[in-house]
Amino acid sequence: MKTASIGLPNPHRMTLLVLRDANQPVKQLHVSKPLVIAVPLIALLSISGLIISLQIQSSQTISKLEKQIQSQDLRFEAVVTDKDAAIERLQNEVIALSGQSQEMMNRMERVTELETELQKFIDKYGGGEELGRLSSMSLDEDDSLGVGGEFIAVHENEIEQLALDTKDQFTEMSALLDEMEKNVPVTLKKARQTQYTLSGTPTEWPTLSKRLTSNFGYRTDPFTGRASFHAGVDIAGKIGDPVYAAGAGKVITAAKDSSHGKYIVVEHPGGLQSWYLHLSKISISEGDTVTKGQRIGSLGNTGRSTGPHLHFEIVKQEKAVDPLPYLE
Ligand SMILES: [Zn+2]
């Protein structure tokens, strides 16, 4: 389609010729001059309007985006703050862990020292003063000591090194624990054994034979045939059989007379005494300290005795009591 304007006598009107196909007639359009000006002006105005509205829209979008970015910035800031707090927490944890680890190491060292002390004590086999020293030693469990001081910030590298050191300390501790787990039961067994041998209660059967030939109490006297009181138990055995201290204590008598024959009296802590009569041999001296189960003499037939046997007696506060309830 082509348009052309042709000059006409009327100065306020314009004629537009519309030329279509060659076969089709030419079309004439009469338009007024103001209209010709108005149309492009309107078009221009409307385009301007569009541009302005687009500008407004875009500025709105920008401000919206700006707001979004701002809120995102805030979020990022929050995340960073969280991270900082997490790092600080971690640092504090590592520091606390390191402190705990160090303290644990110290404690374990003290325990190891104690174990060594215990071992020494057992090896010495019953040094009373060692026991006293051992029991007076105690772990300082008081952790409520005051803390404070200047705050000095630490570098990340230092924290890393601290963590590494802590790891090393834990490895060391683990090895120490393994060793202790092996040693302590052995030590404990020895300790129990020692405790037993040091026990002052006369519970150990005093010779090899368990054959009782006379009980504690009233009986017919084997020499006179008259009623009499038997202050202990008679255990038949062979001459030379070992005679053991029934409990730990101090030998207060190691002597010989016509009635008791060769005999021993051991005084135990707690006011008990154990008597061993008619022995063939005495292996200890008066004033000696004996442990439970220690050999103190040999079974015999000395004194007022009708055959090889051990007369065993327990005296409680100067009065003879039935020894059987004491013996295991
Ligand atoms: Zn007797």
UniProtKB/TrEMBL annotation:
Keywords: Membrane, Signal, Transmembrane, Transmembrane helix. It comes from the Bacteria. Pfam families: Peptidase_M23. Residues 229-323 form the M23ase beta-sheet core domain. The chain crosses the membrane at residues 35-54. Coiled coil: none annotated. PANTHER family: L-ALA--D-GLU ENDOPEPTIDASE (PTHR21666:SF289), PEPTIDASE-RELATED (PTHR21666). This is M23ase beta-sheet core domain-containing protein.
